[in-house]
Write a structure and sequence with these properties.
13 helices, 5-stranded antiparallel β-sheet, 468 residues, 17 strands, globular
């Protein structure tokens, strides 16, 4: 292990907080700069906390990589109210960004939270995302800049790319379930495996005590997916009649955080091995990718004894608005399978028309995606195998058009997912056949050949193509 490598360790046992084994220096002294006196107005930056990410004017790449600079989350102290500050982060690598389409950074003030109960809020003026003059190995860098005035003097504030959701947040949430005499009866929490850094990967089995779905989050910086997961769990563990029906009907296997190592150290995309875990499902390297291997093995064993109705992993999307899904068509030209893959996403769009965009959904398999969980599970025989993508920004649909998503919006998607699952499996298949009929009509106006051959084209884009 290299000197000053960042490693986090969770001890074996129950639901415990992650422990910091090595304080990260990232080339800096561990002694923080402090103001010289009360007249010193220097802003003090800090990111050496769970999920934090910032170094000087740059976002730290995912550990053991030289890329994936997207997630930022840092603290600012010694603030001065009434002064206009310009913040600029100079080493983003993606050419396109939602910041140029209305997205704004997130801001949290401890004084605002204490005095007015105001949490994370969107802020910033003159927000720009542009290519700068920096480059490395022929690759150009991009800058994000914004201007802002702090609301209070001597405040402790935070900036973030998306609403943070840490490993500690997850453990506290799971502890509350475990300590609840009602919810713990139909939600059993177990340790699926340990990561390379010995953090625990949990699996939840949710069903009636007398008694298949699967859901999980992969990329650490895509915290919007964690909020959707929380909403899903809040609803399915609730006391409504629909929640009870779901518990009676299904066995849910939920892996709420597949990559806790990456979450803890503030990575955006990768594990501590410097790998995108979502592209390792064809790997047999159990020691290198334990959470993926044990998840695959769990589902494989489940499928030996019962049908798995649906698989879904959850992600965040940095270039598109709304929430949408990726499915699997493969090379099979069967009309029934073509339509069947689209029924659940279409139901979801009807249940959540102001957030979920069916027209943005794609169902083809690119060669580069063949190692992903969605594709591997589909090839194992799970007909409904999806990736849910949630924007970091907001909606272009209905009453939510032009707004940013907040945590309540994201959590509500968990409820709509459950509602759509009930519609999909309802013995009264009226809604099912209504969606099927609608898809058949839609298919008449779409060139089926192009849907299968053009993996980068969505239904909406094809429908707008005059040649189709």
């Amino acid at each position: 292990m290299k000197e000053d490598t960042v490693v986090y360790l969770a001890e074996d046992g129950g639901l415990q907080r992650a422990l910091f084994c090595v304080l990260p220096s990232w080339g800096q002294s561990n002694t923080l700069k402090q103001p010289m006196d009360d007249c010193d107005n220097t802003l003090i930056f800090e990111a050496r906390f769970e999920s934090g990410n910032l170094q000087k004017l740059t976002v730290r790449p995912d550990l053991f990589t030289n890329k994936h600079t997207q997630w930022y989350y840092f603290q600012v102290t010694n603030t001065q109210a009434g002064i206009v500050y310009r913040f600029t982060i100079v080493n983003f690598t993606k050419p396109a960004s939602l910041y140029n389409r209305g997205m704004r950074p997130l801001f949290y003030s401890e004084k605002e939270a204490k005095a007015h109960n105001i949490g994370w809020q969107r802020i910033g003026d003159q927000i720009k995302y542009y290519r700068n003059n920096l480059e490395q190995d022929g690759h150009h860098y991009f800058s994000l800049t914004w201007m802002f005035q702090f609301p209070h003097n001597k405040d402790t504030c935070y900036f973030a790319h998306c609403y943070p959701y840490t490993y500690t947040n997850l453990q506290k949430y799971l502890s509350s379930i475990n300590n609840d005499s009602v919810r713990s009866k139909f939600c059993k929490i177990r340790v699926l495996c340990h990561t390379s850094a010995r953090n625990m990967v949990y699996v939840l089995t949710i069903t009636s005590p007398l008694k298949n779905s699967d859901s999980r989050k992969v990329h650490p910086g895509e915290t919007n997916s964690s909020w959707i997961m929380k909403g899903f769990l809040n609803y399915i563990l609730g006391d409504s009649s629909d929640a009870q029906l779901l518990q009676d009907t299904f066995v849910f296997k939920v892996v709420p955080m597949l990559n806790p190592d990456g979450v803890i150290v503030g990575n955006y995309w990768c594990s501590l091995a410097g790998q995108d875990l979502n592209h390792t499902y064809t790997s047999l390297l159990k020691e290198s990718f334990p959470s993926v291997w044990y998840t695959w093995n769990m589902i494989h064993r489940l499928m030996e004894n019962r049908e798995v109705i649906l698989y879904c992993d959850r992600h965040g999307h940095s270039k598109k608005e709304n929430i949408f899904m990726y499915g699997c068509d493969g090379s099979d030209r069967c009309k029934a399978l073509y339509l069947q893959q689209r029924i659940f996403p279409l139901m979801l769009s009807k249940n959540c028309p102001d957030k979920f965009s069916f027209s943005a959904c794609k169902f083809n398999i690119q060669k580069s995606k063949e190692g992903t969980g969605r594709v591997v599970m589909w090839k194992m025989g799970i007909r409904n195998s999806f990736t849910t993508e949630a924007t970091f920004c907001g909606s272009t649909l209905g009453n939510k058009q032009g707004t940013h998503f907040n945590t309540i919006d994201l959590e509500s998607m968990g409820y709509h997912f459950c509602d759509s699952l009930l519609d999909y499996c309802d013995p009264d298949q009226t809604k099912y056949y209504q969606c099927l009929k609608e898809l058949e009509e839609m298919k008449k106006h779409i060139n089926l050949e192009k849907v299968h051959d053009d993996s980068d084209t969505s239904l909406k884009e094809i429908a707008l193509d005059p040649e189709s």
